[in-house]
Design goal:
- About 40% of the residues lie in helices and about 5% in strands.
- By secondary structure, it is mainly alpha-helical.
- The strands form 5 sheets. It has a 3-stranded antiparallel beta sheet. It has a two-stranded antiparallel ribbon with strand order 1-2.
């Protein structure tokens, strides 16, 4: 008896049909008669087009059997037991090749989950048995509870199935070959918001339905509404490692998966989404050390070093650093495990830093502006009358930086002395009255608050000195 292959039929299922048609109870008995795949093709008179109809690899004991699905390897297939769709078996009694994949859990035609256990005795079905429609207990495989599959899981399984036949729809999911689909699922399917695997790509018992279903559900969820769910995963991982300053320590093995394991151009869409997330949310630095990233990502990252920001804003680096410490400019500060300090500033702050630099004075410039000795300016700072932008005492800075607007209250518009009343200059008071430090600050407070009314022979504003 010489049954003919059906398009998309599993090569193992085809051998089971041949063995059953010729009175055998097991594929092993057929093998004892024919030994090699070449003998099978000769005995059945299979043409090359008929061989191409088959999907999947043959058992290893069939000598000289090449992989029928050249894009896949033997490890991609389930060699432990069968999975099936009961509705498909009602139509035609043959095993679809796609069901033999470890990661295939859905019948895309009927949109239901595949079965792997007998609905009566609960046993798994051996792949060597020839009776495809019944269990050893006699129960038909076409019975049992039907469970609808999630839409996103159907979508990704259909993309895998169509990619094998070159029918992938790029508008729905990325255009990947079936081998790359399996690779993508194997490496990313273990990542969830609550679990980041230590060894992605390695998973025990993947041939079991529950394990495979979990992997495929995870990767289907990540790809659904791309890239929203993937970015949410990155956000969760980032928040769980928010204290880390290293990309490698923050994202762990995922970084290695994206840039080492899934290195092909067909997976570039994953890396583009990851680097887009870094541009939006990574507060640390990206520099030329990150050679795996695109140059556009490194150059376009908004976080800059203090040295770069200081050069662009024409400010001293020490001033930029002190502005961050004073929380006048938002910045990212952290320390590595080796106590190395890392500072980063968003490029949007360059304009603000430049403005603060242009409008700030050091101690000598402040003294000249107020026409006071530097010692008197220090007293005003200590009393809180002048609030410096950068304080030497607080931040251990090399110099003071005081904003010009802080000095406006010490520039007065006096009343005109029309009655020619006797007056005394502030400079004379400071020089000859021998005021104590406290008396000096009280005098200034009285002038600032208006308790004392200054007079002058001009209407223009004049500094306190």
């Amino acid at each position: 008896m010489r049954p003919r292959p059906i398009s998309g039929e599993a090569s193992l299922g085809f051998l089971a049909r041949v063995a059953e048609a010729n009175g055998y109870n097991s594929i092993l008995q057929l093998w004892q008669s024919l030994k090699t795949w070449e003998n099978v093709t000769v005995a059945l008179g299979l043409t090359s087009s008929e061989v191409e109809c088959l999907f999947g690899c043959l058992p290893g004991y069939w000598r000289g059997a090449d992989e029928i699905s050249s894009a896949l390897t033997a490890s991609d297939f389930n060699h432990a037991h069968l999975r099936w769709c009961p509705l498909c078996l009602m139509d035609t009694k043959h095993i679809r090749g796609i069901w033999m994949l470890k990661l295939c859990c859905v019948c895309t035609e009927h949109r239901i989950l595949l079965h792997e256990k007998c609905p009566k005795c609960g046993s798994r079905q051996e792949i060597h048995r020839t009776m495809l429609e019944r269990c050893v207990c006699g129960k038909r495989k076409t019975s049992g509870t039907i469970k609808a599959a999630p839409i996103d899981l159907i979508k990704i399984t259909l993309a895998m199935e169509q990619s094998f036949y070159g029918l992938a729809d790029q508008s729905v999911l990325p255009a990947l070959g079936i081998q790359n689909w399996l690779k993508l699922a194997l490496y990313l399917g273990q990542y969830t918001e609550n679990n980041q695997p230590e060894r992605p790509g390695q998973l025990l018992n993947l041939h079991e339905m529950d394990i495979a279903l979990g992997v495929m559900t995870n990767v289907a969820n990540l790809l659904d509404q791309w890239p929203a769910n993937f970015l949410q995963l990155l956000t969760t991982i980032h928040q769980q490692n928010s204290e880390q300053t290293s990309l490698r320590k923050t994202f762990g093995k995922l970084l290695n998966v994206l840039y080492r394991q899934l290195y092909g151009l067909e997976f570039q869409f994953l890396r583009d989404a990851f680097e887009g997330y870094l541009i939006e949310h990574w507060q640390g630095l990206l520099c030329n050390r990150h050679r795996l990233f695109k140059k556009e990502t490194v150059s376009g990252h908004p976080q800059l070093t203090i040295k770069k920001v200081a050069w662009l804003s024409q400010s001293p680096p020490s001033l930029v650093r002190h502005l961050i410490e004073a929380e006048l400019v938002p910045g990212f500060q952290s320390h590595t495990a080796k106590k190395r300090r890392i500072n980063a500033i968003n490029r949007q702050q360059i304009h603000r830093i430049a403005e603060l630099t242009k409008t700030s004075l050091n101690l000598l410039e402040t003294a000249k502006s107020l026409q006071l000795p530097k010692r008197r300016v220090r007293l005003l700072i200590a009393a809180g009358i002048i609030k410096p932008l950068v304080s030497r005492s607080r931040f251990n800075a090399a110099s003071w930086h005081i904003q010009k607007k802080e000095l406006t209250k010490l520039w007065f518009k006096p009343e005109l002395n029309d009655e020619k009343l006797p007056v005394v200059c502030i400079s004379a008071i400071l020089k000859y009255w021998r005021l104590s430090d406290n008396e000096f600050t009280e005098l200034v407070n009285a002038l600032v608050s208006g308790i004392l009314k200054p007079v002058s022979g001009t209407k223009e504003r004049v500094p306190i000195g």
